[in-house]
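Cross-posting from the modeling subforum.

Setting up a comparison between two proteins and wanted a second pair of eyes on the formatting. Protein 1 (sequence, then structure tokens):
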Amino acid sequence: MAHPSNPKNRSEAEILGYRQALSKIHAKPESFSIDEKTILGLHSQIYSRTDIPSGQWKKRDNTIEERLSDGRWITRFVPVSARETPGYMKEFCIRFNRLRKEGLIASTGTGRGALWEKRGNAHNKRGNKRGNKGVRKI
């Protein structure tokens, strides 16, 4: 998908929002702060071209479901409740920043694919060890 000015559907709108959010992170990963305000700002940016309420914590509980080939629905994941979300996100930020400060999470630099990595053994997508490269994507 090139950079469409008018996304055709929700998926395209979200992808465009993700690209914008990642560009912001990749621009200066070392100085990018992780706090609740930043996360809500990224959420707002990701969903800015959709009708989904953005830039705020969820207001109701939800589940992540999957529709099977036979038409049945199964629950894949039950996220933390809406009431507990702000506290969990605050704790996430505290822990992430502590690990980053301790050097256990490092920026991978800039450019495509630049994110933060947890120092340790590298694994492939299936979780199999690829050898000791010193970092593992988180």
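Protein 2 (same layout):
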Amino acid sequence: MRYLIVVFWGFIWGEVIGYIGGQLELLNYSALEVGTVAAIVCLVTSVATHMLADDTTPAPNK
């Protein structure tokens, strides 16, 4: 569920940033392309951050 929310908000923020950047640079704006790329980047970043985080649980003593 966490990653579904990340993809959703990544798509929305990508749309906003892409639209503003397209208007500032006078470039063509492809909504689906920008949103999809932003969602994928956010998903990869979120998964990588989760996988690279230190495990804070102590190891059991034997």
